[in-house]
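Holo model, fe (ii) ion. Inputs:
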Amino acid sequence: MMKPELQKAFNKQINEELYSAYLYTAMVNYFESESLDGFATWMRAQVVEELIHASKLIAYMHDRGGNVQLEAIAKPTATWKGALDAMQAAYKHECHITECINKLYSAASKVGDHAAAIFLNWFVNEQVEEEANADAIIQQLKLAKDAPGPLFMLNRELGARAITFPTATTPAE
Ligand SMILES: [Fe+2]
Ligand SMILES: [Fe+2]
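Output:
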């Protein structure tokens, strides 16, 4: 059984992941409004990933007999100054999530819940990828410097990102 304070910390993280999905949905809408359909496709895959993150935490709490508490999800920003501004906001948000995950990992260690800490290893590693992915797009946008040609190419490249749904048998992977 998870300690109540760790359950509270998990519930907070579930809200953070659902907010991430909400924020990235706002970015999908923004990119669509700017006719950046490739960026929208890339961000749509990101929304699905965040929902999977929340689902993994929820499934884990159920496995451990925890009490999942869903709180209200904050209203996200709806508009940005351009693709670079939006991607920088996404990167900044991922850095915030990394901090949240680190705190959650510390909370699990503090109460001596090694199983939870080991489970959270996946999230620690995932955040390295999440920051790197957003940063890679920022670097390409900086190289493009608003030139229509490179931006068009980048938009097309990002549009090739596939959405991968996990199978029902592998919720914790
Ligand atoms: Fe996440
Ligand atoms: Fe993320």
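The mean pLDDT is 95. The CA atoms of residues 3 and 111 lie 7 Å apart.
Archived with the compound record.
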